[in-house]
Amino acid sequence: MKQIRPIAFIAALFLSLLCQAQEMIRISTSDHEMVMAAFNDGPVHFVYWGEKVQGDAFPFQPGKNQPDTQDDITPRIYPSYGGRHYLTPALRLTHSDGVLTTDLVYAGHTVNVLDENRKETVISLKDRIYPVTVSVRYLAYQKENVVAQSVTLSHSEPSPVVVESVASSFIPFHADSYWLTHFNGTWAYEMQLEEERLTHGQKVIESKKGVRATQSENPSFILSLDGPLAEDSGEVYAGALAWSGNYRLVFELDETGHLGVTSGINPFASELILEPGKCLETPQMILSYSPSGAGQLSRNMHDWARRYGMTHGDMLHPVLLNSWEGAYFTFDEKTITDMIDKAASAGVEMFVLDDGWFGNRHPRNGDNAGLGDWQVNRKKLPHGIDHLADHAVSKGMKFGIWIEPEMVNPDSDLAHKHPEWIVRSGEREVLTMRNQWLLDLTNPEVQDFIVKTFDEVLGQSDNISYVKWDANRHVDNVGSTYLPADRQSHFWYEYVRGLYDVYERIRAKHPDIMIQLCSSGGGRLDYGALKYHDEFWASDNTNALDRIYIQHSTNLLFPAIATGSHVSTSPNHQTGMLIPLKFRFDVAMGGRLGLELQPSSLVGEEYDFACKAITVYKDFVRPLVQLGDLYRLESPYSGTGWSSHMHVAKDKSEAVMFAYCMKYNGRTTYFSTRLKGLEPESVYKVEEINEGSVPAFPAGTMTCTGDYLMKVGLQLRINKPFSSCILKFSKIQCSDSQ
Ligand code: GLA
């Protein structure tokens, strides 16, 4: 005994030393970091996400065990179902022998510097018993202060493992209170901001619609700790899932005061059978943090999106006229060439031919026929697309065209030729939505068809520069004649993978084409799809008043350069509201400006105003809105009846400010606000641009320091509904100001 005891003691000491031999893995960007504590053959804990901590030392403080709750309240980076984890797991598997639990431990990590801005950290986890590996990948974008997290799962069990759920990220928080901002909506009313204080239990944001998955909720959030979301103060976190199908974001506040946020593809009816040796990759969760409120968070996301989250994010986007609200399905060649002529004379740079140009045996004269038959309708357009595109180019414009290649009308040649390509649930009736069916993108033949369609549509003319890609229905009565009976639950995942394969192939072939992301408006607004697109159509609601809210919320996480924003006619086609042309322009100029009307309706003073506004946008506003930094001054949700924001050039030499009056403000005749984002010591010239008949900036032209503008602010005479103002700020040399 005497001889054995020291050995046992040394072994115990060795073991305890091993347990303490944790490695602190620090995943940092320029200003922020996430810190994980890894234990050899033990858990990897998520210990910190916030401002960068100075110095090399980052001691681990173990959590306190709580009897009958979680096994350890220091959360893990990727909790799996099993042990004493009672909350929503990031991973839930049924192993090949039927065992339902998984216990992940640290198996090493690697750090790769991909380039001067991107550092990749991959933390490997393995099950204690089963040959299952989970690689948690963090891609840290230094300059933008963004981290993209994703997970790869694989195994070498003797037979398949059933993946019941596999999240992209799990982020734990610990604060006194949690305030969740998320985005609710419906068709023509997308991205309505809602904020709530989270209480114990679960708050779930999800979609089961498959396509148009972001129409009623967006897979993104902003979380503010210890108080409601503020623009310039408070610790705030953002997440946006880069996935264009079913998603689920679970916010779970437990009895220990921790909030766990689990984000990823929706596990609902989506069990995935994973063969040994195969990998399953989750989408990325795009994460960012700001210690100083929502403003900085948005700027992080915008900078990241312009560089990594969209196509051509560094290029100025053209002012375009889209034919939809101006012509709908009713046009012929002359209608279109007349629209092009008038738009060209007003300074518009691109014409986009929307729905209605195709189908012969089943002409697309309404939404009930023709989808799938992507040949030009010779009756409407006898000289083809080429003629129209050439006409636009001859007027100095570019040309774009609408497609909806994932869809088919029952009344089409395609539906008759390929009934097996249509999403269907066994023998059940295939339900129509907007008179159309969905093609089964899990099927490689369908993927090939869509790539071919895209090529053929572009092949109609060398002068097509832009494609508007639409998708106007959800998935219902899900099912695939391509997938085997025991893989039907793979549909949701495989549809999106199929879509991304198609996007990849198209982008490889057509890198310069601009593509707009549309799905009945903002039904597919996520960073998974946006990556392949130049912009999105935020909403079919073009009513300027509603657009203020939609654009405000959308631009919390998505950049203005990508936000297609069009001036339409009055009364507005969706709401019937009468809104002056100046207000409509002033709102649309807050995004990628376009027109969505019959330009021949713009006559006299209205035509002159439109020409002036387009020039002002191109000459001054566009580079700032599209490539500058957004500062929000007054939220439309504030209840004051005003909304205001500004965009500042990266070098602070110029800025543009927008202010809108949304309701009658009684005897409060001025809107006053302080500016943001300017250089305090610099002198700026302030002047109104795009003026209406009554000046809104009573001070007239003014010269003052950035400090004055940011401390004293400005007063604008916009107190009646639909009065608005745009101000230009240009830094001047000191000598100019004397
Ligand atoms: C969807 C789009 C619209 C328009 C129509 C055409 O609703 O959101 O902008 O393209 O389809 O059918």
Describe this structure in words.
This protein is of the alpha+beta class and 738 residues long. Among the domains are: 81-303, Beta-galactosidase, Chain A, domain 5 (Distorted Sandwich); 632-737, Sandwich (Immunoglobulin-like), CATH 2.60.40.1180. 22% of the residues lie in helices and 30% in strands. The chain is built from 14 helices and 37 strands. The strands form 7 sheets. Strands 5, 6, 7, 8, 10, 11, 13, 14, 18 and 19 form a 10-stranded antiparallel β-sheet that branches. The protein is globular and about 80 Å long. The N and C termini lie far apart (95 Å). Bound molecules: alpha-D-galactopyranose.
What class would the helix/strand composition place it in?
alpha+beta
Structure annotation, total helices? 14
Outline type: globular
Radius of gyration from CA coordinates: 28 Å
Helix % is 10-25%
What kind of oligomer do you see? single chain
Topology:
Blueprint: H1 4-20, E1 23-28, E2 32-38, E3 44-51, E4 91-94, E5 104-113, E6 118-127, E7 132-141, E8 146-155, E9 161-174, E10 178-184, E11 192-197, E12 201-206, E13 220-225, E14 236-241, E15 247-253, E16 258-265, E17 272-274, E18 279-281, E19 285-290, H2 293-309, E20 320-322, H3 324-327, H4 333-345, E21 350-353, H5 384-394, E22 398-403, E23 407-408, H6 413-417, E24 437-438, H7 444-459, E25 464-469, H8 491-509, E26 514-517, H9 527-530, E27 535-537, H10 544-557, E28 563-568, H11 581-588, E29 592-596, H12 604-627, E30 629-634, E31 642-648, E32 654-661, E33 671-673, E34 683-689, E35 702-705, H13 706-711, E36 714-716, E37 724-732, H14 734-737
Parallel strand pairs: 20-21, 20-29, 21-22, 22-25, 25-26, 26-27, 27-28, 28-29
Antiparallel strand pairs: 1-2, 2-3, 4-9, 5-6, 6-7, 7-8, 8-18, 8-19, 9-16, 9-17, 10-11, 10-13, 12-15, 13-14, 14-19, 15-16, 23-24, 30-31, 31-32, 32-37, 33-36, 34-35, 34-37
Helix pairs in contact: 7-8, 10-11, 11-12
The chain binds alpha-D-galactopyranose.
